Amino acid sequence: MAAAVHSPLYLGFDFSTQQLKVVAMDGNLNVVHQNNVQFDSELPEFRTQGGVHLHADRLTVSSPVLMWVKALDLLLDKMKRAGLDFSRVRALSGSGQQHGSVYWRRGASETLKQLDPDQNLYQLLQGSFSVSDSPVWMDSSSRQQCQDLQAAAGGALRLAEITGSRAYERFTGNQIAKVRQTRPEDYQDAERISLVSSFAASLFLGDYAAIDYSDGSGMNLLDIRTRNWSEICLEATSPHLDRLLGAPVPSESVLGPVSSYFVRRYGFCESCRVVAFTGDNPASLAGMRLQRGDIAVSLGTSDTVFLWIQQPRPALEGHIFCNPVDWKQYMALLCFKNGSLTRERIRNECAGASWENFSAALRDTPLGNNGNMGFYFDSMEITPPAVGVHRFDPDDNELSSLSPQVEVRALVEGQFLSRRLHAERLGYSIIPGTRVLATGGASSNKEILQVLSDVFNAPVYTIDLSNSACLGSAYRALHGLAAESGVSFCDVVKKAPDPQLVATPHPTAQEVYGRMLKRYARLEERVLQETRPRSM
Ligand SMILES: O=C(CO)[C@@H](O)[C@H](O)CF
Predict the structure, then answer these.
(1) Cβ contacts of residue 359 below 8 Å, gap of 6+?
(2) Which pTM value belongs to this model?
(3) 342 lines ligand 1 (CB under 6 A)
(4) Given CB 3.0 to 4.6 Å as the disulfide criterion, which of 209, 373, 407, 476 pairs with 202?
(5) What end-to-end distance do the CA atoms of the chain give, in Å?
(6) Ligand 1: does its nearest atom lie under 6 Å from the Cβ of 170?
């Protein structure tokens, strides 16, 4: 028992859109503790909805940075009350929602270096941010800045060649340009700009933490081949921006020991190491131990489809990020903004706010939904850039409504047809042997995964934890300690439990959805024409 008491622990945090989550893992890769803080319900004083503030222009979306700070205070207190022995923690890492930006006010680094262990972080960091409402990934208000950056880089495709993506409104460089142009005093008063991931790492480090290559790939600022900031992009965004960002580092970097604040307030060991934090999707790739040939589908606030690739093939749709577990390789990602919030809306309106009724509707409606289809873009979609709800009958006539059960299936089939269509357009071929690895909140719903398996015509697997970003961060904390001796991530986590098969495609799936996919593509083009923003 004594050995168990002092056996090492590794922590993985995830500062995601709607909540702050943590996983504690022992040296045998077993999860021994999980906890979370839900922003809306546990920090109601910040009045967020889904963890964010949607501004009146319906394009600007932000989150209060001090809400994230206070959530960490609450989470660590919850862990302490649950009896977690912080002195066993050998290393910690984490992830954050991608693309968000945090603006540290002049002097904040001194505050970070001398945090008083008798006070909580929320009290200590009250005056440390020059922008209190951090822009986040759901924001789509920086179109002008995107156009300016693409012009400076030599066009959309040239920018994608350099940074892995054409200009996207949510990408951090464009958001920084917008803050500099619209809030010059706040911008001038910033001495450091972090991503959500490196902001969270800074709290544990007690100093500004470097941005890692993988999450840094989501800024339209990092050259994904040299892994340095692109001079062209920096200059186009803000002069001398590199001084505010610091130099990027490989994702497996050990940034340093945990701040003495955490040693004295929570009993962390002085030798506990902070491993670079990264984006939530890169952390999920690590958590699912994605292998080449797998396709990951993350069903969270955003839905994402991503896979491991060896060479970058940038395109005008989707993203290429530096790989978080092997910085010489890459990951490809597609992001769909209308994910779980839209599924929850349809659950509330068509299934009496009950997931069991939602699942029953999927069980009680046929593959292909008798030809009824839907596009549910509650807010401006990222992939493709369209908005609005559009329903079609079997003859492609637009409908104003569907019966509740048919609407449930139209939503889920429509979401997965979109994921598959855009993934195949980017060359992510779904061939015999392809495994679909599902993660995120909705991956705990078997009926939703059955539709995923049918639409992709591939077996669907899940790991036993729906929160792969936290698990991946705990894995990366463990790997960070070994990376310096050249041990690969895959070797460090090879003993982890294998993903479990949870759904296989119905025998008629290939025929039904092969045909439906062509129809979906045609109708999507029609929806795009109807709703395309003028300047696109
Ligand atoms: O914008 C995204 C990825 O590019 C989203 O998946 C965010 O990371 C969600 F937090």
Answers:
(1) 445, 446, 447, 448
(2) 0.96
(3) no
(4) 209
(5) 64
(6) yes
